[in-house]
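The aim of this short unit is practical: by the end, you should be able to scan a pair of folded records and say something sensible about each. We start with the first protein, listed as its amino acid sequence and then its C-alpha coordinates.
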Amino acid sequence: MSQNNTNEPGGNVPELNTDEPVRVNHTARNIVIAVVVVLLVAAGAFFGFHRANGGAAEAAKGTKDNPVRIGVVGATDPQWVEFTKQAKAKGIYVKIVDFQDYTSENPALAAGDLDMNEFQHLLYLANYNVQNGKDLQPLGGVAIYPLGVYSSFDKDGKPKYTDIKDLPAGSTVAIPNDETNQARAIGVLKAAGVVTLKGDWTAFTIPQDIDEAKSKVKVVPMKAEQIANTLKSGGDDLSAGVINNDYVADAGLDPTDAIYHDDAESEESRPYINIFAVRADDVDNAVYRKCVEIYQTKPVLDALQEESAGTAVFADKFSQTELAKYLTDIESDIRASGK
Protein backbone atom coordinates (compact mmCIF):
# COMPACT_ATOMS: atom_id res chain seq x y z
CA MET A 1 0.00 0.00 0.00
CA SER A 2 1.47 3.34 -1.03
CA GLN A 3 2.09 6.20 1.36
CA ASN A 4 1.32 9.80 0.46
CA ASN A 5 4.35 11.87 -0.68
CA THR A 6 3.71 15.57 -0.93
CA ASN A 7 6.59 15.87 -3.41
CA GLU A 8 5.01 13.50 -5.95
CA PRO A 9 2.16 14.74 -8.16
CA GLY A 10 -1.06 13.11 -7.08
CA GLY A 11 0.74 11.86 -3.89
CA ASN A 12 1.49 8.38 -5.30
CA VAL A 13 4.94 6.79 -4.87
CA PRO A 14 5.99 4.31 -7.56
CA GLU A 15 7.01 0.83 -6.32
CA LEU A 16 10.66 -0.29 -6.70
CA ASN A 17 11.43 -3.14 -9.10
CA THR A 18 13.24 -5.59 -6.86
CA ASP A 19 14.24 -7.75 -9.82
CA GLU A 20 16.66 -5.06 -11.11
CA PRO A 21 20.14 -5.30 -9.44
CA VAL A 22 21.38 -2.22 -7.58
CA ARG A 23 24.83 -1.22 -9.00
CA VAL A 24 27.33 0.21 -6.41
CA ASN A 25 30.85 1.61 -7.16
CA HIS A 26 33.35 -0.55 -5.09
CA THR A 27 36.59 1.08 -6.35
CA ALA A 28 37.42 2.92 -3.10
CA ARG A 29 36.76 -0.16 -0.99
CA ASN A 30 38.96 -2.34 -3.22
CA ILE A 31 41.83 0.14 -2.94
CA VAL A 32 41.59 0.09 0.85
CA ILE A 33 41.58 -3.73 0.90
CA ALA A 34 44.60 -3.86 -1.40
CA VAL A 35 46.55 -1.45 0.77
CA VAL A 36 45.72 -3.45 3.90
CA VAL A 37 46.86 -6.68 2.23
CA VAL A 38 50.16 -5.09 1.15
CA LEU A 39 50.76 -3.81 4.68
CA LEU A 40 50.05 -7.21 6.21
CA VAL A 41 52.42 -8.93 3.79
CA ALA A 42 55.13 -6.36 4.50
CA ALA A 43 54.63 -6.72 8.25
CA GLY A 44 54.87 -10.47 8.00
CA ALA A 45 58.06 -10.25 5.97
CA PHE A 46 59.58 -7.76 8.43
CA PHE A 47 58.87 -9.82 11.52
CA GLY A 48 59.97 -12.99 9.74
CA PHE A 49 63.26 -11.31 8.83
CA HIS A 50 63.62 -9.97 12.38
CA ARG A 51 63.14 -13.43 13.86
CA ALA A 52 65.63 -14.95 11.43
CA ASN A 53 68.28 -12.35 12.09
CA GLY A 54 67.56 -11.99 15.78
CA GLY A 55 68.63 -15.56 16.42
CA ALA A 56 72.17 -14.51 17.29
CA ALA A 57 71.00 -11.99 19.86
CA GLU A 58 68.68 -14.54 21.42
CA ALA A 59 71.28 -17.32 21.51
CA ALA A 60 73.14 -17.95 24.75
CA LYS A 61 76.42 -16.06 25.11
CA GLY A 62 79.38 -18.23 24.21
CA THR A 63 77.48 -20.32 21.67
CA LYS A 64 78.35 -20.52 17.99
CA ASP A 65 75.60 -18.03 17.10
CA ASN A 66 76.62 -15.60 19.85
CA PRO A 67 80.36 -15.87 20.56
CA VAL A 68 82.14 -13.94 23.30
CA ARG A 69 83.71 -10.90 21.61
CA ILE A 70 87.17 -10.10 23.01
CA GLY A 71 89.12 -7.05 21.89
CA VAL A 72 92.92 -7.44 21.63
CA VAL A 73 95.94 -6.02 19.83
CA GLY A 74 97.50 -8.86 17.85
CA ALA A 75 94.69 -11.34 17.23
CA THR A 76 97.01 -13.74 15.39
CA ASP A 77 99.50 -13.97 18.27
CA PRO A 78 100.03 -17.60 19.38
CA GLN A 79 98.29 -17.18 22.74
CA TRP A 80 95.05 -16.10 21.06
CA VAL A 81 95.19 -18.91 18.54
CA GLU A 82 95.67 -21.42 21.36
CA PHE A 83 93.04 -19.73 23.55
CA THR A 84 90.41 -19.93 20.79
CA LYS A 85 91.21 -23.61 20.31
CA GLN A 86 91.03 -24.39 24.04
CA ALA A 87 87.80 -22.42 24.51
CA LYS A 88 86.08 -24.25 21.66
CA ALA A 89 87.19 -27.58 23.13
CA LYS A 90 85.42 -26.59 26.34
CA GLY A 91 82.25 -25.57 24.54
CA ILE A 92 82.75 -21.80 24.44
CA TYR A 93 82.91 -19.96 21.15
CA VAL A 94 84.91 -16.73 21.09
CA LYS A 95 85.57 -14.08 18.48
CA ILE A 96 88.92 -12.33 18.83
CA VAL A 97 88.48 -8.77 17.57
CA ASP A 98 91.75 -7.20 16.43
CA PHE A 99 92.59 -3.55 17.08
CA GLN A 100 95.49 -1.61 15.63
CA ASP A 101 95.99 0.78 18.54
CA TYR A 102 95.38 1.04 22.27
CA THR A 103 92.73 3.78 22.27
CA SER A 104 89.62 2.10 20.89
CA GLU A 105 89.21 -1.07 22.94
CA ASN A 106 87.86 0.50 26.14
CA PRO A 107 85.29 2.73 24.38
CA ALA A 108 84.15 -0.32 22.39
CA LEU A 109 83.77 -2.31 25.61
CA ALA A 110 81.92 0.49 27.39
CA ALA A 111 79.55 0.84 24.40
CA GLY A 112 78.73 -2.88 24.38
CA ASP A 113 80.47 -3.65 21.08
CA LEU A 114 82.82 -5.99 22.97
CA ASP A 115 82.15 -8.38 25.85
CA MET A 116 85.72 -8.29 27.17
CA ASN A 117 89.12 -6.93 26.25
CA GLU A 118 92.70 -7.88 27.09
CA PHE A 119 95.41 -5.43 26.13
CA GLN A 120 96.07 -3.15 29.12
CA HIS A 121 97.42 -3.01 32.63
CA LEU A 122 95.56 -1.69 35.67
CA LEU A 123 97.16 1.75 35.49
CA TYR A 124 95.94 2.26 31.91
CA LEU A 125 92.44 1.11 32.86
CA ALA A 126 92.41 3.40 35.92
CA ASN A 127 93.38 6.39 33.79
CA TYR A 128 90.63 5.57 31.30
CA ASN A 129 87.96 5.24 34.00
CA VAL A 130 88.91 8.47 35.76
CA GLN A 131 89.27 10.54 32.61
CA ASN A 132 86.03 9.28 31.04
CA GLY A 133 83.80 8.73 34.06
CA LYS A 134 83.54 4.99 33.38
CA ASP A 135 83.60 1.93 35.63
CA LEU A 136 85.19 -0.87 33.61
CA GLN A 137 86.50 -3.57 35.91
CA PRO A 138 89.26 -6.20 35.88
CA LEU A 139 88.04 -9.78 35.69
CA GLY A 140 91.32 -11.66 35.89
CA GLY A 141 95.09 -11.21 35.76
CA VAL A 142 97.28 -12.23 32.85
CA ALA A 143 100.92 -11.23 33.29
CA ILE A 144 103.40 -8.55 34.17
CA TYR A 145 106.24 -7.73 31.82
CA PRO A 146 109.07 -6.92 34.23
CA LEU A 147 111.17 -3.81 34.09
CA GLY A 148 114.79 -4.83 34.43
CA VAL A 149 117.86 -3.14 35.90
CA TYR A 150 120.96 -3.76 33.76
CA SER A 151 124.61 -3.27 34.66
CA SER A 152 126.96 -0.92 32.86
CA PHE A 153 129.71 -2.55 30.78
CA ASP A 154 133.46 -2.29 30.99
CA LYS A 155 135.68 -1.44 28.04
CA ASP A 156 135.91 -5.15 27.16
CA GLY A 157 132.14 -5.34 26.72
CA LYS A 158 131.49 -7.30 29.91
CA PRO A 159 128.94 -6.35 32.61
CA LYS A 160 130.57 -4.71 35.62
CA TYR A 161 128.01 -6.07 38.10
CA THR A 162 126.04 -9.30 38.36
CA ASP A 163 123.82 -8.34 41.30
CA ILE A 164 122.16 -5.05 42.16
CA LYS A 165 123.56 -5.33 45.69
CA ASP A 166 127.02 -4.87 44.20
CA LEU A 167 126.33 -1.32 42.95
CA PRO A 168 128.73 1.11 44.67
CA ALA A 169 127.25 3.54 47.16
CA GLY A 170 126.82 6.95 45.59
CA SER A 171 126.88 5.63 42.03
CA THR A 172 124.29 6.69 39.44
CA VAL A 173 121.46 4.67 37.94
CA ALA A 174 119.59 5.86 34.85
CA ILE A 175 115.80 5.60 34.60
CA PRO A 176 113.44 6.37 31.66
CA ASN A 177 112.22 9.96 31.68
CA ASP A 178 108.68 9.32 30.44
CA GLU A 179 106.07 9.70 33.19
CA THR A 180 104.77 6.13 33.33
CA ASN A 181 108.08 4.26 33.17
CA GLN A 182 109.87 6.79 35.36
CA ALA A 183 107.54 6.12 38.28
CA ARG A 184 107.72 2.40 37.69
CA ALA A 185 111.52 2.43 37.53
CA ILE A 186 111.72 4.26 40.86
CA GLY A 187 109.43 1.58 42.29
CA VAL A 188 111.75 -1.13 40.99
CA LEU A 189 114.78 0.52 42.61
CA LYS A 190 112.83 0.98 45.84
CA ALA A 191 111.86 -2.72 45.85
CA ALA A 192 115.53 -3.58 45.25
CA GLY A 193 116.50 -1.56 48.31
CA VAL A 194 118.80 0.94 46.60
CA VAL A 195 116.58 4.02 46.90
CA THR A 196 114.42 5.27 49.76
CA LEU A 197 111.39 7.51 49.28
CA LYS A 198 110.23 10.42 51.40
CA GLY A 199 106.73 8.95 51.44
CA ASP A 200 104.73 6.12 49.88
CA TRP A 201 105.39 5.03 46.31
CA THR A 202 102.61 5.56 43.75
CA ALA A 203 102.38 5.20 40.01
CA PHE A 204 103.03 8.96 39.87
CA THR A 205 106.20 9.10 41.97
CA ILE A 206 108.92 11.37 40.56
CA PRO A 207 112.69 11.68 41.26
CA GLN A 208 112.04 14.57 43.66
CA ASP A 209 110.21 12.09 45.91
CA ILE A 210 113.48 10.18 46.52
CA ASP A 211 115.26 10.79 49.80
CA GLU A 212 118.79 11.03 48.43
CA ALA A 213 120.41 11.14 51.88
CA LYS A 214 118.95 7.74 52.73
CA SER A 215 119.42 6.14 49.30
CA LYS A 216 122.36 4.02 48.20
CA VAL A 217 122.39 5.30 44.62
CA LYS A 218 121.52 8.47 42.77
CA VAL A 219 118.95 8.51 40.00
CA VAL A 220 119.14 10.39 36.69
CA PRO A 221 116.28 10.42 34.14
CA MET A 222 117.23 9.81 30.49
CA LYS A 223 115.46 9.10 27.24
CA ALA A 224 114.56 5.42 27.37
CA GLU A 225 116.19 4.62 24.03
CA GLN A 226 119.53 6.12 25.15
CA ILE A 227 120.01 4.17 28.37
CA ALA A 228 121.19 0.87 26.88
CA ASN A 229 123.73 2.51 24.56
CA THR A 230 125.09 4.61 27.41
CA LEU A 231 125.52 1.51 29.60
CA LYS A 232 127.35 -0.30 26.82
CA SER A 233 129.66 2.60 26.00
CA GLY A 234 132.15 1.55 28.69
CA GLY A 235 132.08 4.88 30.47
CA ASP A 236 131.96 5.54 34.18
CA ASP A 237 128.97 7.89 34.25
CA LEU A 238 126.46 5.14 35.06
CA SER A 239 126.68 2.02 37.19
CA ALA A 240 123.35 0.66 35.95
CA GLY A 241 120.13 1.59 34.20
CA VAL A 242 116.48 0.57 34.03
CA ILE A 243 115.68 -0.44 30.45
CA ASN A 244 112.22 -0.80 28.95
CA ASN A 245 111.52 -4.21 27.44
CA ASP A 246 111.06 -2.53 24.06
CA TYR A 247 114.76 -1.63 23.98
CA VAL A 248 116.32 -4.71 25.55
CA ALA A 249 116.55 -6.76 22.36
CA ASP A 250 117.49 -3.73 20.29
CA ALA A 251 120.52 -3.25 22.55
CA GLY A 252 121.61 -6.84 22.04
CA LEU A 253 120.64 -7.76 25.61
CA ASP A 254 118.62 -10.63 26.95
CA PRO A 255 116.06 -10.28 29.77
CA THR A 256 118.10 -12.79 31.75
CA ASP A 257 120.98 -10.28 31.74
CA ALA A 258 119.07 -8.08 34.21
CA ILE A 259 120.69 -7.81 37.64
CA TYR A 260 117.24 -7.13 39.11
CA HIS A 261 113.65 -6.91 37.92
CA ASP A 262 110.25 -6.52 39.52
CA ASP A 263 107.81 -9.41 39.91
CA ALA A 264 104.09 -10.00 40.10
CA GLU A 265 104.07 -10.13 43.90
CA SER A 266 105.60 -6.72 44.70
CA GLU A 267 103.37 -3.82 45.64
CA GLU A 268 105.12 -1.58 43.13
CA SER A 269 104.27 -3.90 40.26
CA ARG A 270 100.51 -3.98 40.88
CA PRO A 271 99.59 -1.08 38.57
CA TYR A 272 101.29 -2.93 35.73
CA ILE A 273 99.34 -6.18 35.96
CA ASN A 274 97.83 -6.89 32.55
CA ILE A 275 94.21 -7.88 32.90
CA PHE A 276 90.97 -8.91 31.22
CA ALA A 277 88.45 -6.07 31.52
CA VAL A 278 84.65 -6.18 31.45
CA ARG A 279 81.77 -3.84 32.19
CA ALA A 280 80.98 -3.59 35.90
CA ASP A 281 77.68 -5.45 35.46
CA ASP A 282 79.54 -8.45 34.04
CA VAL A 283 82.07 -9.21 36.77
CA ASP A 284 79.98 -12.20 37.88
CA ASN A 285 79.23 -13.47 34.37
CA ALA A 286 80.00 -17.20 34.48
CA VAL A 287 80.88 -17.46 30.78
CA TYR A 288 83.32 -14.55 30.93
CA ARG A 289 84.93 -15.92 34.08
CA LYS A 290 85.31 -19.28 32.33
CA CYS A 291 87.10 -17.51 29.47
CA VAL A 292 89.63 -16.11 31.93
CA GLU A 293 90.13 -19.54 33.49
CA ILE A 294 90.75 -21.05 30.05
CA TYR A 295 93.30 -18.35 29.23
CA GLN A 296 95.10 -19.09 32.49
CA THR A 297 95.63 -22.77 31.60
CA LYS A 298 99.11 -24.04 30.76
CA PRO A 299 98.72 -24.41 26.96
CA VAL A 300 97.69 -20.76 26.60
CA LEU A 301 100.25 -19.40 29.06
CA ASP A 302 102.98 -21.41 27.32
CA ALA A 303 101.99 -19.72 24.06
CA LEU A 304 102.02 -16.32 25.79
CA GLN A 305 105.51 -17.00 27.14
CA GLU A 306 106.64 -17.92 23.64
CA GLU A 307 105.28 -14.63 22.30
CA SER A 308 106.98 -12.63 25.08
CA ALA A 309 110.35 -14.28 24.44
CA GLY A 310 110.35 -15.56 28.01
CA THR A 311 109.81 -12.17 29.66
CA ALA A 312 106.25 -12.65 30.96
CA VAL A 313 105.74 -13.15 34.68
CA PHE A 314 102.31 -14.67 35.08
CA ALA A 315 99.79 -12.83 37.24
CA ASP A 316 97.08 -15.46 37.15
CA LYS A 317 96.74 -16.00 40.91
CA PHE A 318 95.08 -12.67 41.75
CA SER A 319 91.35 -12.83 42.45
CA GLN A 320 88.88 -10.46 40.83
CA THR A 321 88.31 -8.87 44.23
CA GLU A 322 92.04 -8.21 44.71
CA LEU A 323 92.41 -6.71 41.24
CA ALA A 324 89.36 -4.50 41.77
CA LYS A 325 90.87 -3.24 45.04
CA TYR A 326 94.15 -2.41 43.29
CA LEU A 327 92.22 -0.56 40.60
CA THR A 328 90.32 1.48 43.17
CA ASP A 329 93.58 2.43 44.90
CA ILE A 330 95.18 3.50 41.64
CA GLU A 331 92.14 5.57 40.69
CA SER A 332 92.35 7.29 44.07
CA ASP A 333 96.04 8.06 43.46
CA ILE A 334 95.18 9.53 40.06
CA ARG A 335 92.54 11.83 41.53
CA ALA A 336 94.86 12.86 44.35
CA SER A 337 97.64 13.65 41.89
CA GLY A 338 95.38 15.84 39.79
CA LYS A 339 96.19 13.89 36.64
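Turning to the second protein, read its sequence before its C-alpha coordinates, just as you did above.
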Amino acid sequence: MLVFQKECTLPPFRRGFHLITDRVLKEIPELRQIRAGLLHVFIQHTSASLTLNENADATVRQDFESHFNIMVPERAPYYRHNYEGDDDMPAHIKAALLGSSVTVPITNGQLNVGTWQGIYLCEHRDHAAGRHLVLTAYGL
Protein backbone atom coordinates (compact mmCIF):
# COMPACT_ATOMS: atom_id res chain seq x y z
CA MET A 1 0.00 0.00 0.00
CA LEU A 2 1.32 3.43 -0.97
CA VAL A 3 0.20 6.53 0.88
CA PHE A 4 1.16 10.11 0.03
CA GLN A 5 -0.13 13.21 1.77
CA LYS A 6 0.62 16.83 0.98
CA GLU A 7 -0.70 20.16 2.09
CA CYS A 8 -0.78 23.04 -0.34
CA THR A 9 -2.08 26.58 -0.56
CA LEU A 10 -3.98 27.80 -3.57
CA PRO A 11 -3.56 31.44 -4.54
CA PRO A 12 -6.54 33.73 -3.94
CA PHE A 13 -9.35 33.25 -6.46
CA ARG A 14 -12.19 35.64 -7.13
CA ARG A 15 -15.64 34.58 -6.06
CA GLY A 16 -16.97 31.82 -8.30
CA PHE A 17 -16.28 28.28 -9.45
CA HIS A 18 -12.74 27.53 -10.64
CA LEU A 19 -11.14 24.43 -12.17
CA ILE A 20 -8.18 23.36 -10.06
CA THR A 21 -7.53 19.82 -11.33
CA ASP A 22 -4.18 20.70 -12.93
CA ARG A 23 -3.02 22.57 -9.81
CA VAL A 24 -3.90 19.58 -7.62
CA LEU A 25 -2.05 17.17 -9.90
CA LYS A 26 1.00 19.44 -9.91
CA GLU A 27 1.07 19.37 -6.09
CA ILE A 28 1.00 15.57 -5.78
CA PRO A 29 2.94 13.99 -8.65
CA GLU A 30 3.42 10.87 -6.52
CA LEU A 31 -0.02 9.66 -7.53
CA ARG A 32 1.64 8.54 -10.80
CA GLN A 33 3.07 5.66 -8.73
CA ILE A 34 -0.39 4.33 -7.85
CA ARG A 35 -1.85 1.63 -10.09
CA ALA A 36 -5.26 1.51 -8.39
CA GLY A 37 -6.35 3.80 -5.57
CA LEU A 38 -7.99 7.04 -4.53
CA LEU A 39 -7.15 10.72 -4.30
CA HIS A 40 -8.91 12.55 -1.50
CA VAL A 41 -8.88 16.37 -1.69
CA PHE A 42 -9.99 18.23 1.47
CA ILE A 43 -10.34 21.99 1.89
CA GLN A 44 -9.56 23.42 5.35
CA HIS A 45 -12.13 26.21 5.21
CA THR A 46 -15.80 26.78 6.03
CA SER A 47 -16.54 29.44 3.40
CA ALA A 48 -15.26 27.64 0.29
CA SER A 49 -15.97 24.16 -1.01
CA LEU A 50 -15.00 21.52 -3.54
CA THR A 51 -17.00 19.65 -6.15
CA LEU A 52 -16.48 17.60 -9.29
CA ASN A 53 -18.21 18.78 -12.45
CA GLU A 54 -17.99 20.04 -16.06
CA ASN A 55 -14.42 20.88 -17.10
CA ALA A 56 -14.86 22.23 -20.64
CA ASP A 57 -17.55 24.88 -20.88
CA ALA A 58 -16.94 27.91 -18.64
CA THR A 59 -20.62 28.87 -18.80
CA VAL A 60 -21.36 25.92 -16.51
CA ARG A 61 -19.20 27.50 -13.80
CA GLN A 62 -20.89 30.87 -14.37
CA ASP A 63 -24.32 29.22 -14.09
CA PHE A 64 -23.30 27.51 -10.84
CA GLU A 65 -22.36 30.89 -9.37
CA SER A 66 -25.59 32.51 -10.56
CA HIS A 67 -27.75 29.68 -9.25
CA PHE A 68 -26.10 29.51 -5.83
CA ASN A 69 -26.39 33.30 -5.42
CA ILE A 70 -30.15 33.05 -6.01
CA MET A 71 -30.58 29.88 -3.93
CA VAL A 72 -28.56 31.33 -1.01
CA PRO A 73 -28.99 35.11 -1.13
CA GLU A 74 -26.99 37.68 0.77
CA ARG A 75 -28.61 39.90 3.41
CA ALA A 76 -31.44 37.49 4.23
CA PRO A 77 -33.26 39.07 7.19
CA TYR A 78 -32.92 35.91 9.29
CA TYR A 79 -29.09 35.71 9.07
CA ARG A 80 -27.44 36.61 12.35
CA HIS A 81 -23.86 35.64 11.47
CA ASN A 82 -22.48 38.50 9.38
CA TYR A 83 -19.30 39.46 11.22
CA GLU A 84 -17.23 39.50 8.04
CA GLY A 85 -19.76 41.05 5.67
CA ASP A 86 -22.84 40.25 3.66
CA ASP A 87 -21.22 37.21 2.04
CA ASP A 88 -20.27 35.63 5.41
CA MET A 89 -23.26 33.41 6.25
CA PRO A 90 -24.16 32.64 2.62
CA ALA A 91 -20.58 31.40 2.11
CA HIS A 92 -20.95 28.96 5.02
CA ILE A 93 -24.29 27.67 3.72
CA LYS A 94 -22.94 27.18 0.18
CA ALA A 95 -19.91 25.35 1.55
CA ALA A 96 -22.17 23.08 3.62
CA LEU A 97 -24.32 22.29 0.57
CA LEU A 98 -21.38 21.42 -1.69
CA GLY A 99 -19.02 19.87 0.84
CA SER A 100 -15.42 20.11 1.95
CA SER A 101 -13.92 17.24 -0.04
CA VAL A 102 -13.93 15.15 -3.20
CA THR A 103 -12.58 11.64 -3.68
CA VAL A 104 -11.49 10.57 -7.15
CA PRO A 105 -10.32 7.13 -8.33
CA ILE A 106 -6.72 6.70 -9.51
CA THR A 107 -6.06 4.19 -12.28
CA ASN A 108 -2.58 3.60 -13.68
CA GLY A 109 -1.21 6.81 -12.17
CA GLN A 110 -3.96 9.10 -13.46
CA LEU A 111 -7.25 10.42 -12.17
CA ASN A 112 -9.99 8.18 -13.52
CA VAL A 113 -12.61 10.85 -14.17
CA GLY A 114 -15.08 11.20 -16.98
CA THR A 115 -14.14 13.06 -20.14
CA TRP A 116 -15.88 16.24 -19.01
CA GLN A 117 -15.10 16.14 -15.27
CA GLY A 118 -12.78 18.36 -13.27
CA ILE A 119 -12.21 19.39 -9.66
CA TYR A 120 -13.65 22.80 -8.77
CA LEU A 121 -12.67 25.20 -6.04
CA CYS A 122 -15.96 26.87 -5.17
CA GLU A 123 -15.00 30.26 -3.75
CA HIS A 124 -17.95 31.76 -1.90
CA ARG A 125 -16.30 34.91 -0.50
CA ASP A 126 -15.80 38.25 -2.24
CA HIS A 127 -12.32 38.77 -0.76
CA ALA A 128 -10.80 35.43 0.20
CA ALA A 129 -7.17 34.73 0.88
CA GLY A 130 -5.46 31.62 -0.44
CA ARG A 131 -7.17 28.36 0.41
CA HIS A 132 -5.46 25.39 2.07
CA LEU A 133 -5.91 21.86 0.75
CA VAL A 134 -4.89 18.47 2.14
CA LEU A 135 -4.23 15.97 -0.65
CA THR A 136 -4.10 12.28 0.22
CA ALA A 137 -3.36 9.68 -2.45
CA TYR A 138 -3.35 6.02 -1.54
CA GLY A 139 -3.49 2.68 -3.26
CA LEU A 140 -1.44 -0.08 -4.82
